[in-house]
Amino acid sequence: MKLNKLTPVEESVIIKKGTEPAYTGKYENFFQNGIYVCRQCGASLYKSASKFHSGCGWPSFDDEIAGSVARQADKDGIRTEILCSVCGGHLGHVFEGEGFTPKNSRHCVNSVSLDFIPEQKK
Ligand SMILES: [Zn+2]
């Protein structure tokens, strides 16, 4: 597995499980067609069709690409942490039952954990 070299800010989130400040991430208000991939390893994580605007301050998705996102209990004992299933990089947290979309799931993901690949023009 080839890993991208991370900046200190990326490392603070992806490796040290930090959180970027709300409303600052480059993908929070970003709605182009394409695929979001893991910043660290490049694995495909989310389709733009799953992205929605929750107003929570971070990019929000109601579904992941099957098998791409791992879940584990957060150290805080309350939330569910989500990680890249390939490299284990921290993505954010997932919340269920809030009613934002019919899938009733919100993946709250740090922009710095993601890269965006625009859809190829046919
Ligand atoms: Zn990864």
CATH architecture: Beta Complex
What is the CATH level 1 assignment? Mainly Beta
Gyration radius (Cα, Å) is 13 Å
Oligomer: single chain
Classify the helix fraction into a percent range. under 10%
Biggest pleated sheet = 6 strands, antiparallel
The helix-and-strand class reads mainly beta
Morphology call: globular
* End-to-end Cα distance: 30 Å
Tally of alpha and pi helices: 1
The helix-strand sequence is HEEEEEEEEE
Strand content: 25-35%
Bound molecules: zinc ion
**Total individual domains:** 1
Total strands: the figure is 9
How are the strands of the biggest sheet laid out side by side? 3-4-8-7-6-5
The averaged pLDDT comes out at: 97
CATH superfamily: Peptide methionine sulfoxide reductase
**CATH-defined fold name:** Metal Binding Protein, Guanine Nucleotide Exchange Factor, Chain A
Contiguous low-pLDDT stretches (5 residues minimum) are none
Tag the structure with descriptive keywords.
single chain, 122 residues, mainly beta, Metal Binding Protein, Guanine Nucleotide Exchange Factor, Chain A, 1 helix, 33% strand, globular, binds zinc ion
Give an overview in words.
This protein is mainly beta. The protein has a single domain, classed as Metal Binding Protein, Guanine Nucleotide Exchange Factor, Chain A (Beta Complex), CATH 2.170.150.20. 6% of the residues lie in helices and 33% in strands. The chain has 1 helix and 9 strands; from the N terminus they run H-E-E-E-E-E-E-E-E-E. The chain has one helix at residues 8-14; strands at 34-38, 44-47, 51-52, 60-61, 69-73, 80-84, 90-96, 105-109, 114-118. It has a 6-stranded antiparallel sheet, with no helix packed on it. The protein has a 3-stranded antiparallel sheet with strand order 2-1-9, with no helix packed on it. The protein is globular, with a radius of gyration of 13 Å. The chain starts with 7 loop residues before the first helix and ends with a strand. The model has no long low-confidence stretch (mean pLDDT 97). It binds zinc ion. Zinc ion is lined by residues 38, 40-41, 43, 84, 86-87, 89.
